[in-house]
Amino acid sequence: MRIRLPFPSVRFLASTALLALAACAPAPIYKASPDAVDAPPFQVAQSPEQFAHRQVIWGGRIVGVTNLADHSEVEILAYPLDRSQRPKANDSGSGRFIAVMPGYVEPLDYPAGGLMTVSGTLSGSRAGKVGEAGYVFPLVQVDQSHVWTADELNKGKNNFHFGVGVGVIR
């Protein structure tokens, strides 16, 4: 004897499963304004005056921190962000920018190689160098910043792994 499930039940189960999966992804940490820039840093660097005084939410890998008399600058190699505004570090870089932060920033809290997301306002650009090559860095006056922990980066990722083989545990 075969039991058939009515079609609406299957649809309900499928939609519930999709909703449960979507609920696993963390929400974005910053709210974008309607006029926020949707261009990557390398594109903004080509014509910074076109994007002046507009909001950005950018992120990437921390290259280094420079503390100055009244502010600090964090150089960041930009990566695209996922829906939770986490940098996708396995993607190709999309330019560099400088996050200008008020006051002193402890370099140990912003370690080179760490991943970071910032929300702020574009405030022009500055010519500099990456190695020996000339480079134009967009400047972001930071309102908010977040350095991602390994646990935060792994939240909402699929923990199911499929495979066939033999494993040895020591």
Question: How would you characterize the overall build of this protein?
Answer:
By secondary structure, this protein is an alpha+beta fold. The chain has a domain at 41-154: Nucleic acid-binding proteins (OB fold (Dihydrolipoamide Acetyltransferase, E2P)). The protein contains 3 helices and 5 strands, in the order H-H-E-E-E-E-E-H. It has helices spanning 7-24, 41-46, 150-154; strands spanning 55-67, 71-79, 96-102, 115-130, 133-147. It has a 5-stranded mixed barrel with strand order 1-2-3-5-4. A hairpin with a 3-residue loop joins strand 1 and strand 2 (71-79). The radius of gyration is 21 Å and the shape is globular.
Brief overview:
By secondary structure, the chain is of the alpha+beta class. It has three helices and five strands; from the N terminus they run H-H-E-E-E-E-E-H. A five-stranded mixed beta barrel has the order 1-2-3-5-4.
What oligomeric state is this? single chain
The CATH superfamily title of the domain at 41-154:
Nucleic acid-binding proteins
Total beta-strand segments: 5
Strand content: 35-45%
Biggest beta sheet summary = 5 strands, mixed, barrel
Structural class: alpha+beta
Strand ordering within the main sheet = 1-2-3-5-4
Gyration radius over CA: 21 Å
- Low-pLDDT stretches are 12-23
Count of individual helical segments: 3
Helix fraction by DSSP (H/I, runs of at least 4): 10-25%
Q: Could you spell the SSE succession in H and E letters?
A: HHEEEEEH
CATH topology of the domain at 41-154: OB fold (Dihydrolipoamide Acetyltransferase, E2P)
Shape: globular
The level-1 CATH class of the domain at 41-154 = Mainly Beta
Q: Which CATH architecture of the domain at 41-154? A: Beta Barrel
Distance between the termini: 48 Å
- What average pLDDT do the residues reach? 84
Organism: Fulvimonas yonginensis
InterPro entries: OMP_Slp
Keywords: Lipoprotein, Signal
Protein name: Slp family lipoprotein
